[in-house]
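This part of the workshop introduces the protein records we will be handling. Getting from the letters to the tokens is the skill we practise here. The record below serves as our worked example for the rest of this section.

…
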Amino acid sequence: MAPDPPRATVTTIVTATTDNRPGTDGDLPLPVPDEDLLSPVPDEDGAPFWEYTARGELRVQTCTACDAPRFPPRPCCPHCQSFDSHWRRMSGRGRIWSYVRPHPPLLPAYAAQAPYNVIVVELADAPRIRLVGNLVTAADAALNSVDPARLRIGAPVKVAFHTLPGGITVPRWLLERP
């Protein structure tokens, strides 16, 4: 078994900034560049997931023997122990299964986007599969682009894809009925 790849240590320096554009009260934070936020680190089992998101496809690893979907990706099916799998395309639709608004933000780079959300989405095509992401108004919108009062358990959502500066494309979520 190969050792885990080394992980980079991220140090962020936070400075106070205000929005001085006309029509603002000067106290609103400016958006944080994506490069200051955390990015996924693909591993061998999950690499195909990220390759598909780069193509704008949401796919879930599925057992070839028993047809059970599984996430996160792993070598062996937890239901039948088969090592054979394929990547099934999902519709990209689901519902908010749970959510949180971190108070205070857990990492300094996220403080400028507070209040933002982190949601857990139950996929419509595979209800046992739940993905973590953010509810936003558009794929490239800031993490705080949705009014926190609009978060509801069970709200229907659809996937959108956002490419981070490092080249990884992440799924984000849009309300089906904005």
Observations:
- DSSP finds two helices and eight strands in the chain.
- The chain has a mean pLDDT of 85.
- Helices lie at 47-54, 108-111.
- Strands lie at 59-63, 69-70, 85-89, 93-100, 118-123, 130-133, 156-163, 169-175.
